[in-house]
């Protein structure tokens, strides 16, 4: 089953860059799910060098946008469940 997530345009561009790198590295086509799984595995392994490189790709304003979007999602969920 697929789910929809919302990201800023800048984050999408950065995910596409990572997607391109993964495709070259793996020699096969990858999708956003593959990219997110890759990023999660890096996080779980706590690969500091790779995480620094990837975090450096996301501008601060995009991180703020993501944080604000997450706050809105939490508020919507609270409203949804309180009705």
Quick description:
This protein is mainly alpha-helical and about 80 residues long. About 75% of the residues lie in helices and about 0% in strands.
Structure overview:
The chain is 77% helix and 0% strand. It has helices at residues 9-26, 32-45, 48-56, 60-82. The chain is mainly alpha-helical and 83 residues long. It has four helices and no strands.
Principal-axis shape: globular
What percentage of residues falls in helices of 4 or more residues? over 70%
Total of helices: 4
The low-pLDDT segments are: none
Task: Kindly estimate the percentage of residues that lie in beta strands according to DSSP.
Answer: under 5%
Distance between the termini: 27 Å
Q: Determine the mean pLDDT.
A: 79
Order of helices and strands: HHHH
The total of beta strands comes to 0
Structural class: mainly alpha
Give me the Rg, rounded.
15 Å
Largest sheet: none
Provide keyphrases for this structure.
83 residues; mainly alpha; 4 helices; 0% strand; globular
Topology:
Layout: H1 9-26, H2 32-45, H3 48-56, H4 60-82
Helix pairs in contact: 1-2
